[in-house]
Records
---
Amino acid sequence: MVQILVLTALAAVLPLITAQQIGTQTPNVNPSLPTWKCTTAGGCIQQNTSVVIDWNYHWIHTVNGSASCTTSTGVNSTLCPTEAVCAQNCAIEGVDYASAGVTTSGNALTLHQYVQSNGVTSNASPRVYLLGADGNYEMLQLLGQELRFDVDVSTLVCGENGALYLSEMLATGGRSQYNPGGASYGSGYCDAQCPVQNWINGTLNTGNEGACCNEMDIWEANANATALTPHPCEGDTCDKSGCGFNPYAMGNTSYYGNGGTVDTLKPITVITQFYTTDGTTTGTLSEIRRLYIQNGKVIKNAVSTSGLDSITASWCSSSDATAASLGGLTTMGQSLGRGMVLIFSIWNDNGQYMNWLDSGSSGPCNASEGNPTLIESKTPGTYTTFSNIRWGDIGSTFDQGTGGGSGSSSSSSSGSSSSRATSVTSITSVRSATTTTASSRAATTTTASNGGTAGHWSQCGGVGWAGATVCATGYTCQAQNPYYSQCL
Ligand SMILES: *[C@@H]1O[C@H](CO)[C@@H](O)[C@H](O)[C@H]1NC(C)=O
Ligand SMILES: *[C@@H]1O[C@H](CO)[C@@H](O)[C@H](O)[C@H]1NC(C)=O
Ligand SMILES: *[C@@H]1O[C@H](CO)[C@@H](O)[C@H](O)[C@H]1NC(C)=O
Ligand SMILES: *[C@@H]1O[C@H](CO)[C@@H](O)[C@H](O)[C@H]1NC(C)=O
Ligand SMILES: *[C@@H]1O[C@H](CO)[C@@H](O)[C@H](O)[C@H]1NC(C)=O
Ligand SMILES: *[C@@H]1O[C@H](CO)[C@@H](O)[C@H](O)[C@H]1NC(C)=O
Ligand SMILES: *[C@@H]1O[C@H](CO)[C@@H](O)[C@H](O)[C@H]1NC(C)=O
């Protein structure tokens, strides 16, 4: 009897220590999105990655009720006067991804700007992060390496931005005693615009701080314009505009678009290469190169009116004084070397209508057609699909010989046979597959654990959990509720 009483008392105390932050109403099922890591010698190996939607898209409410801990302007200061009290009072829920505008099918991720429910259109504008099997963000180290993906921008109209980019977030998402969910709940966002958000590292942003970090915009695009832009930072000073390469802005106005050299009505394979001065993965970043593949042919990057066809360190620093003052490509390269989180988003912009990307000297769009109200009424179905994401040694993620392949020939890229079909068929199958999301979500929930060790505070089990179930030495996996077990 005595022993039982002691155990009960302990169990009652534990949630207070760990903060009752994990809700029990919607399971946190992060949609599976396999990716590949490639080497020249070993070919491509499939990674058991998934995507998680940003923290702010999750419902955060009172632990014993359904009152929201957030308000239209911030956080409820009665429920959340301090980090510790907020963590005791509030719980974060999982998200229904389809209604948040996110679907996955095989190795393809589709993001919708708007979603419809019972005939009502609402703005979804999701932003998601690539998560590793251990419940932390997958850290891509791209210095001296390349990244490849296929993209469908055919329905992204003027004013839309379908983005694939990197930010130097913490791998854990800032997981802590006040934020046990961490990366598996999408916390810890930062970028070179230094956004001021309600939450920082998944806890109360008491100091109203901006979350600044190095950002590498690999792809910001719609059917009419595209930009590739490094944004280096030093501390809380960032290059907000960046030294970007947009073919139209560089004077090559017929290169990218409907019927252009790169034809945006068709699927596009995009390869971005980060060259160092000495060819190693630890050297100084000297050049960022871009290649495209369409119809089985490698297409060289646009040549600007001044003859430039890549972002070189000298061009970045000479064209952008802020980049120069922050160390330019050298600083960007150091961040790429340490590792950055892969981010996917779709958004439009009420203030500027995305004119900086696709209008005036940057693109063919008329300055007012990017108005979100117009987009919502004329093309509410606008979406983008990213698929077949691979990174690794330069030249290892695509077939340089014929140009049409989607990876070096290796039997180790098992499960990718369908992804090796031409881009055209893979995108077609993605489209028809988006309606079968329910079954792919159901499948995700039954996926067995797939390796890795979970660290202190990390998730190690619960309904829908497909990540690591073994805790690092010194910690044990303890159930907090049916949806969440964590390493304590
Ligand atoms: C904040 O939460 C308290 C307690 O649930 C509630 O009474 C109050 O109305 C909330 N305030 C706002 C602005 O939502
Ligand atoms: C939630 O309910 C439990 C059980 O009734 C209670 O022990 C706990 O104090 C409540 N928590 C809050 C923050 O109200
Ligand atoms: C997030 O937490 C980490 C340590 O866990 C800290 O170094 C970092 O400064 C925090 N970020 C912000 C923006 O406060
Ligand atoms: C645009 O870039 C292509 C390289 O893909 C080049 O052949 C062409 O001359 C460029 N056009 C202009 C107008 O600079
Ligand atoms: C933008 O792209 C769409 C789709 O290809 C095309 O229909 C439209 O004419 C383009 N707009 C401009 C201004 O070029
Ligand atoms: C720009 O687009 C808007 C909205 O489609 C249209 O009303 C306007 O006439 C267009 N302006 C020009 C100069 O084409
Ligand atoms: C991915 O999961 C499968 C099935 O659980 C496993 O066999 C494979 O080793 C995992 N891959 C990696 C890279 O961990």
Note: Confidence is low (pLDDT under 50) at residues 1-20, 403-450.
---
Amino acid sequence: MKTSNQNIKPITTKINSNGNIEIGGCDLVELANKYGTPLYVFDEATIRSVIKSYKDAFKDFPKVNMMYAAKAFMTRAICKIMQEEAFGLDLCSGGEIYTAKSAGFDMSKTLFNGNNKSYDELCFALECGIGTISADNFFELALLNDIAKSNRQNIRILLRITPGIECHTHEYIQTGHLDSKFGFDLTQINAAVELIKDEYKNLNLVGLHAHTGSQIFEKQVYSDEIGVIFKEIRRIKDKYGIDLHEVNLGGGLGIKYTEADKPISIYEMAQTVTEALEKYSKKYDIETPVIFIEPGRSIIGTSGVTLYTAGSSKQVPNGRLYQALDGGMSDNARPSLYGAKYTVEIANNPNGVCDKKVTLAGKHCESGDILAKDIILPEIEEGDTVCFYDTGAYGYSMSSNYNRLLKPAAVLVNNGKSDIIINRQTYEQLTESDVIPDRLN
Ligand SMILES: *Cc1c(COP(=O)(O)O)cnc(C)c1O
């Protein structure tokens, strides 16, 4: 069965009686007029449908728990949806922890990840009642044990390991290959386990954690990963007599940005995972541990679109046609960071004849600020509402104030209603952290 990560558009997308694109029963041109652009629009039905697919796909395997990787897109409203859906949260900074806590999220269902968690962040995480910490390196183990000792507490930890698996995705979003900044190399696991066992008495090692990368299209990655982790669990049991009962497989399932992308469905992923769990439990003779998966992109990516208003254009003599939009690398860093490609439509002209090659440029003072290069669209007119699909993940969350552009608003749409979930930043907010030292006044 097809799942929403295999669609380019949110499931409620259609052309309405005004001849405009609508999502969640809301006309995109009306949304652009009402809230201004750039605007992130999130379709609640798509988010819920992906979540339902994950639950369905793993329902015969009760030992699987879902955590949403909040870094893909996090606001307090999103935390509420995840809480309602009984998902946990995978968090990777003090700011993400604060957001979850302040949304009233059940912190026992959170995991703290990251390759350089600070002392303050770790203290804050514990203060907030974080469920588990994925310990990434030797420095962190020592730091954590010190904090736990002075708090007279025991901390549940997973060891983040680097399984040595290459997934065929962009170099910047591979994480599980050997030359990675994340986690313990397989050759360092013994040393880490010995430290925990002999010295760091306040650390309670419950399992292993790996994450092989993002925008994964191949099933094989998941079964290879499970093979590596289960082999380590067996080895640790034999060598140290320690039973590890929890395994976090990370996230990474890909989505379809353009027709060229062919991600597997959530069901195919679940089947691969389930089969590999059975196979390797038998092979290594271990009781199947409790499994956690932490998808980010595949939960939120397809649900979100970005709306821009078309502004100036430039025809380079004998060269490209540039059409400028009112946002750019500050609201979507992915094209300039990874060369990411998107599917684009004109919300007020979805049926126009696609016969123009155009390069959609942002408004930043940077030649690399191109949102879509050489794509084929209908002729764009000034004032048109341009819709980029699949910007739900790593769009807002990577946004910046470069050139002092204001961070855009985000709305959640459902059944013809639109609700603000992030207000557009104001000029006052933009400058509120600035301080002018007295001597300059
Ligand atoms: C980023 C990340 C995820 C989520 O990855 P997606 O590709 O967005 O699903 C999950 N786990 C860890 C440890 C991560 O760093």
Note: The CA atoms of residues 22 and 136 lie 44 Å apart.
---
Amino acid sequence: MYCCRSLLLNFLVYLCAFSVHAAINGKSSVNLNHLEHIDADAVDQIRSKPKTHEGLGGFEPGDVAPAFKVQTLDGVFVYPPQKESRSALIVHAFTNKSAFLECLWTWNESLTDLLDYLPSSVQVLFLSLDETAASDAVWMREQLYSATAHRSKEIMSRLHFSPVPVYALGNWIPRVLYSWGCGGHNCGLAQVVFTSPDWSIPVISKRLNARYDWLNSRWGADPYRLLDAGDGCKPDAFIKGAVAWISEGGCSVFTKIKNMAESNATGVLVYAFPGNPIRDMNCLGDECSTSLNIPASMVHIEPSVMQALRSGRIVNVTFQITPSPNFFIGIDQQGALSEMGWFLYPTFRFIAWQAQWFVFNEGLQERLKRPSSVVPVFNRSLMQGEMGARALVNLPKDFLDYDILELEASLSCPGRRDETCAHWDHTVQLYVCCDQSSPYCNTEMGRWITAFRRGTGHWLTDVSSLIPLLNNATCAFNMKTVPWAMPWMVSLNLRFSRSNQSGNSSKRLYPFNVMSLFSGGTFDKDYNNRYQEIKFTPPVSTKKVELYAVITAHGYDENFCGEFCVTSHHFLINRHINNTLIFDTAGSPLGCATRVPEGAVPNEHGTWLYGRGGWCDGLQVDPWRTDITAQLDMGGTNTILYFGLFEGRDPNPKTDPGYIIMYSYLVYYK
Ligand SMILES: *[C@@H]1O[C@H](CO)[C@@H](O)[C@H](O)[C@H]1NC(C)=O
Ligand SMILES: *[C@@H]1O[C@H](CO)[C@@H](O)[C@H](O)[C@H]1NC(C)=O
Ligand SMILES: *[C@@H]1O[C@H](CO)[C@@H](O)[C@H](O)[C@H]1NC(C)=O
Ligand SMILES: *[C@@H]1O[C@H](CO)[C@@H](O)[C@H](O)[C@H]1NC(C)=O
Ligand SMILES: *[C@@H]1O[C@H](CO)[C@@H](O)[C@H](O)[C@H]1NC(C)=O
Ligand SMILES: *[C@@H]1O[C@H](CO)[C@@H](O)[C@H](O)[C@H]1NC(C)=O
Ligand SMILES: *[C@@H]1O[C@H](CO)[C@@H](O)[C@H](O)[C@H]1NC(C)=O
Ligand SMILES: *[C@@H]1O[C@H](CO)[C@@H](O)[C@H](O)[C@H]1NC(C)=O
Ligand SMILES: *[C@@H]1O[C@H](CO)[C@@H](O)[C@H](O)[C@H]1NC(C)=O
């Protein structure tokens, strides 16, 4: 297990609270109708709304970014760049009024994340929202330059720092920053408000909350009493019922917060010593296996608060968020404006992930230019409720001449902004039925997981092995997710093409038959007892046999199985050859973030970064294909048996077992 358990536990508790809420809402038909209503209106608005840049809010994600020039410390930055016309650009507007941004710019790991992970084809323009823009630009450049240390300084030529404040740019950029609302950390100023009976005005200070997936608690709206608790390195019963005001240093932030939680404090404010920056408060190593249920934030030291507390005055504290312009805009290689998603914690790695996705998308656009016979199935069709999205499609007459079939799918939102996107990471399945009398009518042909509140997902999945499912000229397609999910707009094309086998078409093999094997089920102690050996003889003229499986693990027992635990899936052939698929990154902290270059949608809400059992938020589920021809007696009888294990053993959960969604086939080629 790489990932701290309490970290997951906290998130799951949080997730459960929301799921229950969502399920209750989902059951209410009034609510569903309401959603459909909103959705229909939103779609109408989008279809009828002319693209205009007149008036505030005229720019939407997907619109083309107009050309602009900005003065920088080194000269003038011109967009689009004259030479490298296909480079993407990230625009970041800094303000030191945000503790999140202060930490983003002072934490060494955040700075080195930008240097180490920003793709080489991407440039960044740094701006400041404040009147101190000139000194901010010099400071930002210095922060990054120092962080390069022994690294190559090449990256500095792709980073541009403007001394002109955003409010004086004189171009369209402020309009986008001011009008693209956002939630979470990408804008908005999180603050604490201190009051004391002796003061005529409150003291208002920026704050950075501890990571929400680490501490399972949020600040309430009512005032809290604030009491000084020294450095918090020892429990102190006196703090009971109040928010503890404690200094940094002396022991880990985890120890401080744990001590205050044990002392029954209602919350913790850790202050930085004068001159020190606000830091990201997180647990380290073994600390993370203890769950803490208390809110905590970091602030700068406030001398007036210190003085009032030390002289025994009453100080109360409340928590607020003041709206602000957006801090980030993306422009992809095609010149389209893009939102940057949600930053879970203050590191430039989130900028790098969005930039990596731009690079993935650029590659995808290239792949889509390859010649193929395209059959449209859905074009921004509404997917919602029990019905999902449905379409009846005529296949091209010559489709059996192709040996490659790819699904080009995208999931977008009712509106153009991510704020209109559905919550949660739900499983989406595509079913096909061509011949109604066939046992393969309504078989799963593709599987994806929705991107939690982001509408940019676009994937190309090779499902060539399933061409035999298309056994009639007319096929019915049905794409759906859980009926209570908020609406998605789905697009789907079937793309038929021919593989290149070094130009020798006689080397091409065509799948002509599939044989259904095992399906999944509840991942409990009886899981493996349900499977029995299947006997099979490859049809005459078979040249190749492939094992094809689509497996994902979901749910969470006390071991967080199957979503966040390491499961393995074995297909035993002729009782001795083990074909094994292991979900070894399930539960690892960045297991899904490292798949952004493969198309996992970056910067989603929730904990999209963690590895999962065979899937990631905002990604297609890749079919697992293994050529087993050499393992078989092609002329005789063979056997195959499936079993699934948790950390190498039969599953044996004590609480709510998880479940495995599986389709598996033998595919015969000739
Ligand atoms: C940002 O603000 C903090 C305190 O509010 C201050 O110590 C720091 O010097 C400021 N940084 C910049 C670059 O202005
Ligand atoms: C960041 O600074 C800390 C403390 O100085 C140091 O231990 C750590 O190695 C640094 N990390 C990086 C990525 O430079
Ligand atoms: C200060 O906070 C305490 C504890 O929540 C509350 O009872 C009291 O009313 C607050 N005082 C003011 C002036 O808000
Ligand atoms: C904190 O609250 C718990 C539960 O009410 C109690 O058992 C414990 O003694 C309290 N601890 C302190 C230090 O007040
Ligand atoms: C999808 O529909 C839009 C407008 O409704 C149309 O412009 C576009 O060409 C369609 N795309 C495909 C692939 O048919
Ligand atoms: C093939 O599709 C046509 C058109 O939908 C349908 O009428 C026919 O019944 C289908 N054939 C089979 C065998 O399902
Ligand atoms: C297909 O194969 C031929 C012959 O080997 C080669 O010249 C050509 O570049 C290949 N085409 C693609 C698209 O890979
Ligand atoms: C193509 O492959 C077949 C079967 O391997 C072989 O007989 C034939 O000579 C090949 N043709 C070319 C042009 O390479
Ligand atoms: C197949 O692999 C699993 C897991 O490593 C192991 O438990 C099992 O004994 C293996 N079976 C055979 C026949 O090798």
Note: The chain has nine helices and 31 strands.
---
Amino acid sequence: MLANAHEYQLASPQSGEPYLLTPGPLTTSIAVKNAMLRDWGSWDEDFRAMTAKLRSELLAMIDDGRNEFDCVPMQGSGTFVVEAMLASLLASDSKTLVLVNGAYGERIVKILRCLGRDHVVIHKGDYLPPRGEEVARALRDDRAISHVIVVHCETSSGILNPIAEISQAVYTAGCKLLIDSMSAFGAIELKTSEIRYEALVSSANKCIEGVPGFGFLIARKSELEASKGNSHSLSLDIYDQWQTMNKTGQWRFTPPTHVVAAFMEALRAHRDEGGVEGRGERYTRNRDVLVAGMRELGFETLLQDRWQSPIIVTFFCPSESNFVFEQFYQLMKDKGFIIYPGKLTVADSFRIGCIGQMDEHVMGKVVEAARDSLHELGVPDAAPPDKALQERAKLAVQI
Ligand SMILES: *Cc1c(COP(=O)(O)O)cnc(C)c1O
């Protein structure tokens, strides 16, 4: 039986607009989109009030009871704020240990190279988690290391890295931790009372479910104070942005006004859903329905359940020669779902995001669409090649 594309599209909030099963930009609510239908003067008091509220609401999510942290928004995509954090918080005589298990960790290494900041790397391949014990060992072996940076959810595989044990190892060694929590912040707790770190970064278009246009840094004030003069860049200088915002309530250069207005609406919805906890619960249900349904079709996940984040899931491509990812992608799109290609070197794969304006019923539809698309391709069984499973088994024993 062929799927009726129209039936899926009716399920979409924008009737006809496909769901983005991608880790940002993602599907936003009508209310978020509507919030952009008005122009704001960046200098005006109303807009400055929005900026102030945005900062305090983001800070509230880390539950900083002692008021030791501050929030600094920065124009641009997420990578801009990662670069701004590294350029500003790492002094020229710092040495950073980068924990890499995917594309976003690799990007951090590239940025440090561009910035000329001394660094060493623990490479874990495509999807193995860096463990506290090996971080501790690396820090013992090289006393010159001052900072460690880790990606919270490595979006290229969907792995949730063990931040708590890494933090423990970092501070036991007297070092400082920075976190790229881009795709996790807002859905996975990072309370300062539970996990010690100096700074995290995230952006508007991930788990808060806004539209793209800015990122934000949440950092210990003492680190912000100490960052004066570190940045090589004017536009990415966190210290300067922070000082100006505190003094004038304004962004230094043109802010993405409509994006900020949309973000205020996204924050309201986040609060109404029960904050970080409620958001995380919906994404977890999304993931569980998706994974169970896809496994029933014969698909296999790259990760063991223990490491699988509720943000995005990597599935191996089926071994059947009739399965061609580009065709599968198009068939899924025809049914109202935009999926995401994989980023693995070990085996062909694709990814399906669990974040954005959708619930478990939509995820049920995603599984139906995958089933119908396989049928249309003439793929009776979605089982991956033995090679992929052997690779996964081989590496699993190392964790
Ligand atoms: C999305 C993302 C980024 C930033 O990517 P941009 O394309 O610059 O927005 C950085 N790190 C992680 C883990 C991400 O998921």
Note: The first helix runs from residue 5 to 11.
